[in-house]
Hints:
The complex is a heterodimer. Chain A is an all-beta fold. Chain A has strands spanning 4-6, 10-13, 19-21, 23-25, 31-38, 42-49, 56-57, 65-70, 73-78, 87-94, 102-103, 107-111.
Amino acid sequence: DVKVTQSSRYLVKRTGEKVFLECVQDMDHENMFWYRQDPGLGLRLIYFSYDVKMKEKGDIPEGYSVSREKKERFSLILESASTNQTSMYLCASKRRGTGELFFGEGSRLTVL
Amino acid sequence: AQRVTQPEKLLSVFKGAPVELKCNYSYSGSPELFWYVQYSRQRLQLLLRHISRESIKGFTADLNKGETSFHLKKPFAQEEDSAMYYCALSGQSSASKIIFGSGTRLSIRP
Lengths: 112, 110
């Protein structure tokens, strides 16, 4: 069974803090993705990576950065958290050449 | 530009009634289309993809390239179908992004 693990289920941070969201997958998948999930807006792609050290901007990259130093780990960084970044963040991975995404349980971030 | 549109935020039908969740897309090229489902307190998971042309849990979806649609259908809804459904699109390159629609909440009334 593919396992995508997001290290924090719930976080509460203050405006201006630096936030790290970690995601680890155990199935040697090449591609990894970060989405945010908001009611009425669905899933919006922040960044994705198709290989180690490779990253591509999604549709809403502003205010975010990512790091992919190892194949199994894809980190999302909020350099200076703002209240409009309060959301559910979903990490997903997939094997290159296949279409199926495997999702983590999500990290619910609240920025006060 | 890639875009996935799900026009209905909420769809409520009675048990045993037919269900159709709409999905329209825009993409220049040949996309891959998917339906994902999120049951209460569970992770998002793949329900079906257009290339497999299979029926999962009684659901089917046909890709209509002329109408750029990929509607999800089930002839007889069951209470356990209540969930959030997302349509998704990907290009065929291994480096393609995968984008989602805004989702439709399906509620099955007993």
